[in-house]
Amino acid sequence: MVHHDLYQDNVLIVPRWxxxxxxxxxxxxxxxxxxxxxxxNLFCLECRACICKDCDDHANHRLLKIFTHxxxxxxxxxxxxxxxxxxxxxxxxxxxxxHNGAQVLFIKQRPQTSYGGNNCERDGCDATLEHHNxxxxxxxxxxHIMSVPSNYRNAKWLLNRVNLP
Length: 165
Known about the structure:
Helices cover 13% and strands 24% of the residues. By secondary structure, the protein is α+β, with helices and mostly antiparallel strands.
């Protein structure tokens, strides 16, 4: 099923919820309803907003749990569980990591690592990957597809499988 916002003037665009997720700032404190001491650790798929667990306005909405994954050198990155994300888009060829026993994916381009392997296929990303993966993050996969017009016809492996705003 093709979602209504995948094409505009016959040009493929990224679903609005995915664009909002990729732009999300999960390292900030929530400013809604006096929750300024709570970190934003959820993404509301319906409202396309980064929220904390105490934001009641989203209680009946579909939420995606965001985790913080340490990457060394005092850096941390926002990650999502592979099982939860695979319901929304095809996550093949994105390198998973293990976080608290679960496979997770980096949302945004991840810091460079030092182990051998191939490089991320996104222009400008120097992350090294295990040999069977092509992208270090969801962001890199989306940007790679959108930067190469011939990839548009294969975009079904990127785009959402559920009907979301």
